Amino acid sequence: MKLLRVAAATLNQTPLDWDGNLRRITEVLRRARAEQIGLLCLPELCITGYGCEDAFLAPDVPRRALQALEALLPETKGLVVCFGLPLNLNKATYNVCCLVADGEPLGFVAKQALAGDGIHYEPRWFKAWPRGERTTVRLLGRELPLGDLHFELDGVRIGFEICEDAWTTERPGAQLALEAVDVILNPSASHFAFGKHAARRRLVLEGARAFGVSYIYANLLGNEAGRVIYDGDALIASGGDLLASAPRFSFQEWTLTSAVIDIETTRTRHGWSSSYLPHVQSAPGARVSRDHHWPATPPELSELQVASWEDSEHVSFEEFARAIALGLFDYLRKSRSKGFVVSLSGGADSAAVSCLVALMVEFGLRELGAEAFSRQLGVCAQDSVAQDGRAWVRQLLTTAYQATRNSSELTRSAARTIAAGLGTQHLELDVDALVLAYESLASEALGRPLDWSTDDLSRQNIQARVRAPGVWLLANLKGALLLATSNRSEAAVGYATMDGDTAGGLSPIAGIDKAFIRRWLRWLESSGPAGFGPIAALECINAQVPTAELRPPGAGQTDEAELMPYELLDAIERAAIRDKRSPCDIYAWMRVRFPSIEPNQLLIWVERFFRLWSRNQWKRERYAPSFHVDDANLDPKTWCRFPILSGGYERELAELRAQVSASLG
Questions:
Q1: Do residues 569 and 604 lie in contact, with contact meaning Cβ atoms separated by under 8 Å?
Q2: Which of 130, 37, 22, 30 lies closest to 83, judged by CA?
Q3: Quick one: how far is CA 584 from the chain centroid?
Q4: How far is residue 627's CA from residue 633's CA, in Å, rounded to a whole number?
Q5: Which DSSP letter does residue 184 get?
């Protein structure tokens, strides 16, 4: 029996925060040593932060990363640890991990597969390391190996799959299995997306089973750099069994998850497999060996603990609440803002944003306690606030209902009800005089009165735009961050007023569609996150039909009447943008999915989507940063690029009209 206590750490790092990143790593190392951890896996690029973007190309960044690594070496006494950092060689930068044992660096393993899809842009900054290649570099005052390596310490063989390496069809783990590796470390920076935890779990379990190893997966945590949220997924598996899993969406600056693995039992089980044919001899230089004394590990069973909400039938609602709450918390503290301001219209989107801020407070206080919560935010709480969640909400969130003559008593009352239910500091501003003043200015300049029959859209937009300066003023006065309230469905078709409801420094729900928001709000009213309960005040929101309330009340304005049913809009958007299907293919697919819609009406709506999509790319370019919550985003800066000026699908839509006309005879 050869037992070894291993661990995976999650870290809430910040790009280029040299002192803060170093402090958090040091704290983890000291805790690991106190817990007699033998082998510790830290996340990918943990020294610099993963989201440094083009700063990775600056020569100073790899230099400072090496200086930080050197400063950390004394903290590794008694430990074997991997550190992630960028490394320059021959005019190129590589994404590498350095394995350090008992204060001594042993070598650098370079990432072979670079993530270049979705939000990832690694090929812009790094070069992929060629499989099987190795060299030596003089760094940290030593000659050290670099490349496609594995290590042997006191008979225990350790290899690497660095994040994307493990998601490819030719995983390095297959080669490492032939080298009789005992443990694979996977330092990762894997963003949160719905359903991704299950995919990671399968990846780790299958890697452990197929390669006959113990597998240690360590991910980043929190809103590291602005748009991307990391759920802090850390997993330890051995021979196909999951031994330990970190709590996801933690508000802590780091977590440490450990388990005891049995090296000899894993070897024996792998050896039973008739398909396992190990290499008799490794390629020259592929294995780095060193004497090492592993700490004594008492025999014990690792008890797998998983939060109850992870098995909920509403796990996507739970994940959304926890992911955005954590994203808001980190954005607030890292931007050094003193709170949030929301223009609370009495509708679903602004109510959802306000609820997410309130959940941020509840989750944070529950996990951190008032003192740590206050310290991390850099906000001095009054004694009366201390442990009171509602008082914290009032201190951190200001909401404002901004009425015009077209606003209804229904939405005014709904805004009051939501604000009271959450405990926000709520203000009511009458902006109708400002709207009339702008209309009067335009009317005098043009020499004619403005009329709804000829100036409909312009008169709607000025109402939305007039609301922006007031909430910006409130945000400035409070040193707070203005949250925009537009959702993804609106972004797809431009159903939002630039410098109106898109105004803000952060757009927390621009990555999620309207249909999901409405379902989530109904769940939040009836159930709510595990351990917290429902928000009953949402009844006044969920009973409404979504409307912009920018036309006179008698117009009967509703969102879906002006656009199309949100479920259909979202289905078309995913088929067109995520799946890259043509208008003709989408029409045929929507006929199957929505058989109750009349063919001519469906044609109108499919055409409407493509025309509005093409005309409104400029709006999507101007949206405030949004959070990514799934692997199909519309953010043109990090995910979905589309020309601002285009042919607008004219030929494709003409073909669709002809096809539908022919089919209907």
A1: no
A2: 22
A3: 33
A4: 9
A5: E
DSSP 187-230: E------TTHHHHHHHHHHHHHHHHTSEEEEE-BEEESSSS-EE
Alpha-carbon distance of 227 to 261, in angstroms, equals 36
pLDDT along the chain (665 residues), means of 10: 93 98 98 96 98 96 98 97 97 98 98 93 97 96 96 97 95 94 97 95 95 97 96 94 96 97 88 72 88 81 78 94 98 97 95 98 96 90 66 96 91 95 97 95 95 91 94 97 95 92 94 95 96 93 76 75 92 95 97 96 97 96 94 88 95 96 86
214 - beta bridge partners?
183, 238
Distance between CA 224 and CA 653 in Å, rounded?
Answer: 42
Taken in order 508, 512, 518, 519, the sign of the CA dihedral is: negative
Query: Each residue of 405-429: b (16+ CB within 10 Å) or e?
Result: ebbeeebeebbbbbbebbbbbbbeb
CB 43 within 8 A of CB 25: no
Helix axes 315-334, 348-377, angle to 10 degrees: 50
| Contact in structure between 259 and 301 (CB atoms under 8 Å) | no
- CA 215 to chain centroid, in Å, comes to 24
Whole-Å CA distances, 202 to 159, 221, 300, 653: 19, 20, 25, 42
Tokens of 155: 């008979």
